[in-house]
Specification:
Rna Polymerase Sigma Factor, Chain: A; 184 residues; 2 domains; mainly alpha
């Protein structure tokens, strides 16, 4: 399929529905996973994903292969769409205090042995502000400066939210909680 990508891109530039469908079929599940990392509600995550594809189809002529891979360019679009959806829903009211929860923590290597869908399901209850900064920094490798600009917060707030996200994970990730979350 990768050898067909230049033809698919050219078809999308020409607004060819078949090429758009091929691009969607190739990257749809991956794109939805990105959106789910930022948006708790499945319907809203799908909406963000659809918005992302619409933006991509409208702006694909601006994609410059000399500046990076299509997948990286698309990932930025999906992250931005998911953040827009998150901001609309709950972002400004979500920087909440940590609860006093004490559980035996799960080893980091055990936690990360689960696939991304399982981890997403477990992290769903994390406060949106923490989760957004965590995803941007850890999963999508944005700097605190970039996060601050994207979310209209200071770098210090970004660092603080990441620290709180890590604390939340340490306090809430136990084998029992992880297993329970994955079973529901």
């Amino acid at each position: 399929m990768d050898h067909q990508l230049p033809n698919i891109i050219q078809g999308c530039i020409k607004q060819d529905r078949k090429a758009q469908r091929l691009l969607f079929n190739q990257y749809g599940r991956w794109a939805l996973t990105i959106c789910r990392r930022y948006v708790n509600n499945e319907e809203k995550a799908q909406e963000a994903c659809n918005d992302g594809f619409l933006r991509i189809f409208k702006k694909i002529d601006t994609y410059d292969a000399t500046r990076g891979e299509l997948k990286a360019w698309m990932a930025r679009v999906f992250v931005n769409c998911a953040l827009t959806t998150t901001k609309k829903e709950t972002f400004n009211n979500s920087f909440s205090a940590l609860a006093d929860v004490h559980m035996e923590p799960v080893a980091e290597e055990t936690f990360f042995s689960y696939d991304s869908e399982e981890i997403l399901k477990f992290l769903r209850p994390m406060p949106t502000g923490y989760k957004t900064v965590f995803n941007l920094y850890v999963m999508d490798e944005y700097s605190h400066k970039e996060i601050g600009e994207k979310l209209n917060i200071s770098e210090i707030t970004s660092r603080s939210q990441l620290r709180k996200a890590k604390i939340w994970i340490k306090e809430n990730v136990s084998l029992d909680a992880l297993k329970s979350s994955l079973e529901s």
